[in-house]
């Protein structure tokens, strides 16, 4: 790092600019950990407050994140997902993001009121309930809860740890034709925060979706939450 101590540009901003350049060029890749403030200050002969200000500048820009017990890291690249009838696993795999899945819950369960209404079955009807944690770059990205009609597909938890749900449905001959989807936001619960490596109360993106097959039958209800610092939805609007 080269600093011009005679420049009118503040030293903290020079440090921040060069760190940002290293991040955007890939020299500091997502997940890379920065040295602590004392080490950086000693290396570049700067005061600790100057280094702290430079780091905070990049935290505010969303390029760095401070984690208790870990230190300061380069943030993982944000996943930008088009609003189409695809699964998160499909979109991540297509983008070369190498998704990983932890299956947290898998098995028959009575349908709650919301899921029953979305699937068009009486409350308490036995359904297949799945709850999975999706990760990319070794970090949690989303917590996915899905409810399917019982007997729709023959699948195991081990299979879903390696394959996406929509991929599995298509392979079983289920043709997803249309879906109703709602996107929102809310604060993370303590349990969600623990799984997503966030603080309780951190804002999360939410998405609920009911997917229908060729016959207009509801075949899947999903209720998902996503880390807002790593995920966004995008879509194109067309004038009438």
TrEMBL record:
Pfam families: GntR, UTRA. Residues 9-77 form the HTH gntR-type domain. The keyword S-adenosyl-L-methionine does not apply. Transmembrane segments: none annotated. The keyword DNA-binding applies. Gene3D superfamilies: Chorismate lyase-like, Winged helix-like DNA-binding domain superfamily/Winged helix DNA-binding domain. It comes from the Bacteria. InterPro entries: Bact_HTH_transcr_reg, Chorismate_lyase_/UTRA_dom_sf, Tscrpt_reg_HTH_GntR, UTRA, WH-like_DNA-bd_sf, WH_DNA-bd_sf. Keywords: DNA-binding, Transcription, Transcription regulation. PANTHER family: GNTR-FAMILY TRANSCRIPTIONAL REGULATOR, MANNOSYL-D-GLYCERATE TRANSPORT/METABOLISM SYSTEM REPRESSOR MNGR-RELATED. This is GntR family transcriptional regulator. It comes from Actinomadura violacea.
């Amino acid at each position: 790092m080269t600093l011009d101590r005679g420049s009118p540009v503040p030293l903290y901003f020079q440090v921040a600019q060069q760190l940002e350049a290293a991040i955007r060029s890939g020299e500091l890749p997502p997940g890379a950990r920065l040295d602590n403030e004392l080490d950086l200050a000693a290396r570049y002969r700067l005061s600790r407050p100057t280094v702290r200000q430079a780091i905070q500048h990049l935290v505010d820009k969303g390029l760095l994140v401070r984690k208790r017990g870990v230190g300061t890291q380069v943030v993982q690249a944000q996943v930008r997902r088009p609003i189409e009838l695809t699964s998160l696993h499909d979109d991540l795999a297509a983008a070369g993001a190498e998704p990983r899945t932890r299956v947290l819950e898998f098995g028959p369960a009575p349908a709650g009121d919301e899921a029953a209404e979305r699937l068009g079955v009486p409350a308490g009807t036995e359904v297949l309930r799945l709850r999975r944690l999706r990760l990319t770059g070794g970090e949690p990205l989303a917590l996915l809860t899905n409810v399917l009609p019982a007997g729709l597909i023959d699948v195991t938890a081990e299979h879903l740890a390696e394959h996406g749900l929509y991929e599995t449905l298509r392979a079983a001959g289920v043709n997803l034709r249309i879906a109703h989807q709602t996107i929102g936001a809310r604060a993370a619960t303590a349990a969600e925060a623990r799984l997503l490596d966030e603080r309780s109360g951190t804002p999360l993106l939410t998405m609920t979706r009911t997917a229908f097959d060729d016959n207009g039958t509801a075949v899947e209800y999903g209720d998902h939450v996503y880390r807002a610092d790593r995920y966004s939805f995008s879509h194109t609007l067309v004038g009438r």
